[in-house]
Amino acid sequence: MRQIAAGTHSDPFGNQVRISRETLDRWIRRYRSGGFEALVPAPRRLAARTDAQVLELAASLKRENPTRTATQVARILRTATGWAPSESTLLRHFHRLELMGPATGELPGVFGRFEAADPNELWCGDALHGPRVGDRKTYLFAFIDDHSRLLAGYRFGFAEDTVRLAAALRPALAAHGVPGSVYVDNGSAFCDAWLLRACAKLGVRLVHSQPGRPQGRGKIERFFRTVREQFLVEVTDTSTEDLAAAGVDHATALLELNRLFVAWVETEYHRRTHTETGQSPLDRWEAGWDRLGRTPAMPTADDLTEAFLWSEYRVVTKTATVSLHANTYQVDAALVGRKVELVFSPFDLETVEVRYRDKSFGKALPHSISRHTHPKAKPETPELEPPAATGIDYLALTAAAHHEQLRRDERIGYHALYGQDSEIAGQLSLDDLAPSGDADHDGEVSA
């Protein structure tokens, strides 16, 4: 032991150190009493600086109402006692006491991994914020097949609305058939009455996720992560000036973005082996149909047209007319007083079909048309560019004209009327107004 203590040794960091005999003896005693674990240094514990009573009160407040956050507990403590520890201190204390997590009496939700057994059994749809094109935000609507991870439908647009959703969903149905269910979130576009009608017409079960529980959309979220890491990382935002320099407008630039995305999906994503399934999405899609011995259920052109029409209900007036978005139409007089369904394309409000109890009563006759498209039907057209500045300062010109007018005005300048005696030239003085012998009988002062 003396020989070991007298020499130098390399520590874990490569430094040369000497170890005293007392340290060696202490390590030997620890090893003999507790084995190797006794030689492991104990974690350093700092004495708590916060009053234990305050921490206990905070814990009691948390136990009293487990939904209270650390911020809320701190707010209550400041109100009740005039002081509270920091939120981070309270969070550490709550974690030590295992007070964080689900409310008392509630078990944490356990979610098993789910995968549809067959292709077109379930699609999952969502929207992703894309790059800026000409200073305008873009949004990607996408629908992924849960079984194969094949991207059934997708499209970038300038708005996160129903029209852009339809632009992604309709080609997906035409190319890959009708799915059994579509799983979406609670965004406004996915809750629109048009989508409910379209799914009902095609026999698709529309399922919305529960607010605050996005676990069922894991596959589409993972796909969006791939899009960000492999596609969007190569796309740069552009400004209006960039488009002007390239000689393209917003619609053309958006078309190019969609063209590049189609190329990436079809040549890269669909043909690359998926790490979880062990197959490429395209191979897994085709293998699934081969196993089932059939092809996807394809909708007819008439079915798609009908599904993607919009409809609203109106009560026919006594004059056999109905109103639709500031337009007035004449309908069959037999429908007076009845609630009818008006079926139309959002891009053509001049052509409206009237239905009552699923029976068609022909086209409504336009009586007064002031709006030709639905308010929600905004095409992918660029916003109007701000007009070029003329450089004309109207107010400055007005002020200059006023100044010139004053300079040239030959009318009396009232500031020049007063003399040095503060009297207006030609004005009668008080002495002039005094009575004199020259006054006539009428009391008038003679000139």
From TrEMBL:
Residues 115-289 form the Integrase catalytic domain. Gene3D superfamilies: Ribonuclease H-like superfamily/Ribonuclease H (3.30.420.10). GO terms for molecular function: nucleic acid binding. Residues 438-447 have a biased composition (Basic and acidic residues). This is Transposase. PROSITE patterns: INTEGRASE. InterPro entries: Homeodomain-like_sf, InsJ-like_HTH, Integrase_cat-core, RNaseH-like_sf, RNaseH_sf, Transposase-like_Mu_C. One of its GO terms (biological process) is DNA integration. It comes from the Bacteria. Residues 428-447 are annotated as: Disordered. Transmembrane segments: none annotated. It comes from Mycobacterium heckeshornense.
